[in-house]
Amino acid sequence: MSESPLLLAVSEIGGYPNFTELYQKLGFEVITETSMRKVLKLLKKKVPTVIVAEFNYQSDFRDRTSSLESMMSVVQRHSGIRVIIFYDKEHESQLAKLQARYDIAESLSFPITEEKLSEAVKA
Q1: CB 99, CB 107: distance < 8 Å
Q2: What letters, b where the CB count within 10 A reaches 16 and e where it falls short, cover 81-103?
Q3: Could you tell me the CA-to-CA distances from 89 to 84, 108, 112, 122 in Å, in that order?
């Protein structure tokens, strides 16, 4: 069994660098998931120390802004999980609605630099 803290990287759409190597250099065991359904299933079995996920605004949702709300409702049941969100500046106002409801440790706008991400993960 690993002694390293667990980092869950959620990359539903991607389009940015794979930061797995950076996370590992920072001392994390890394699990990457590409669908929210798999993330929710994983969170029933494991509690990560850090979650890094994308905010993908979905205007077609009637009562939510993105699938992150499903994840955040599960995350809020556990204490101490740091959530870091990647987002497009054009969706900043929609992200603010999510941030008003849930505890998000850090939000980083694209393009994501290794330096800023490293600082956010280590904080």
Answers
A1: yes
A2: bbbbbbbeeebeebbeebeeebe
A3: 15, 9, 12, 23
Residue whose tokens read 């991400």: 117
What is the SS3 assignment for 53?
Answer: strand
**120 dihedral zone (left: phi>0; alpha: psi -120 to 50; beta):** alpha
Two tokens, residue 100: 């008003």
**pLDDT, tens only, 13-49:** 888 999 999 999 999 999 999 999 999 999 999 999 9
Residue 99 sits at the vertex; the CA angle it makes with 106 and 38, to the nearest 5 degrees, is: 80
**The two structure tokens encoding residue 37:** 């359904």
Output the six-digit token pair for 90: 């054009």
Beta strand 6-10 with 50-54: parallel, antiparallel or unpaired?
parallel
Q: What whole-number distance in Å separates Cα of residue 48 and Cα of residue 45?
A: 10
Structure tokens that stand for 12 in this block: 């539903």
- Assessment of whether the complete model's pTM goes beyond 0.85: yes
